[in-house]
Design brief:
The complex is a heterodimer.
Chain A: H1 5-13, H2 17-39, H3 42-58, H4 69-87, H5 108-125, H6 130-141, H7 146-153, H8 157-179
Chain B: H1 18-39, H2 43-95, H3 101-113
Helix pairs in contact in B: 2-3
Classes of the chains: A mainly alpha, B mainly alpha.
């Protein structure tokens, strides 16, 4: 059976690197998604998610409710993402191609096509509120359930459903506009 | 509202560039290792780790001290008995009176009453 967040947090407090690795496995992708929803730049989101996760481990003693580590971590990510936008507003304007990837897996044509779609989605996301962007990425990109999102963003279940509904509707309309 | 309504956001997926994402994860974990190695366990964990040896030490101390205490009490009673015998002998010598068997029995019996 998978260890609970509280058990992993207790183990990290006791000095377990393995437990920290498990928390990273559980939350690092979602952390990236939340950062991406806010900063709308892949490289910046990766930096922010890394910094936020490391900060959560540095300050693990401050996590008052270890069962709610996920919510606490996502709050750190949101704060750091907002700070990033405040401190480095120019980073938002950088195109994704300004951050070359280390992978050589897709062909140049595929990479270019994917980068274009990514740019279009990120441009459309600009028009959505922060809550809607975060919920949309956690659900449709990371596959979190409404309940998981509600618990970790500390908002009512119904609100999550409503935000997700309107976020999808708005994003689809924006993407159609961008395609035309 | 369910998965059929899902918007295709796969272009944003970290898995699109798995090597890049693996590098991010590796860099994060390397930084975490440094943090954990530098910090050591927190005070509560330290106290928790001490509690077991402390309990064992306390039990060991009790196991040693209780028999010693009982032994000392017995020795104290013996000393008291000897003191009373000395006292009785002194009284007898001063009063030029031989202690009776009843006197001796009374002194020996007082040990049980202590």
């Amino acid at each position: 059976m998978a260890q609970s967040d509280a058990e992993l947090v207790a183990a990290v407090r006791g000095g377990s690197r393995e437990a920290a690795g498990r928390l990273a496995e559980r939350y690092l992708r979602a952390t990236r998604a939340v950062a991406l929803a806010i900063v709308r730049n892949v490289a910046a989101a990766e930096d922010v998610c890394q910094d936020a996760f490391v900060q959560s481990i540095e300050r693990i003693a401050d996590c008052r409710d270890p069962d709610r580590y996920g919510a606490w971590l996502l709050q750190i990510v949101r704060n750091r993402s907002r700070n990033h936008l405040r401190d480095e507003p120019a980073a938002r304007a950088l195109p994704l191609d300004a951050h070359p990837t280390v992978s050589a897996e897709p062909s140049p044509h595929q990479s270019a096509e994917r980068a274009e779609i990514r740019e279009r989605i990120l441009a459309a996301l600009e028009e959505l509120s922060e809550h809607r962007r975060v919920i949309l990425l956690l659900h449709d990109l990371e596959g979190w359930t409404h309940l998981e999102i509600a618990e970790r963003l500390e908002m009512p279940h119904g609100t999550v459903r409503s935000h997700l509904h309107y976020a999808r509707k708005q994003l689809r309309a924006l993407l159609r506009e961008l395609e035309e | 509202m369910d998965d059929r309504d899902r918007v295709d956001l796969s272009a944003l997926d970290a898995a699109n560039d798995s090597r890049r994402w693996e590098a991010v994860v590796a860099a994060t974990l390397a930084r975490v290792d440094v943090v954990i190695a530098a910090r050591g366990p927190d005070p509560l964990t330290l106290i928790a780790s001490w509690s077991k040896p402390l309990t064992l030490a306390a039990l060991a101390a009790i196991a040693v001290l209780v028999p010693i205490e009982i032994m000392l009490e017995q020795r104290e009673a013996e000393v008291e008995k000897v003191e009373r015998l000395v006292e009785l002998s002194t009284e007898s010598a001063v009063g030029q009176r031989q202690p009776t068997g009843a006197d001796l029995l009374r002194i020996i019996a007082t040990e049980g009453l202590q």
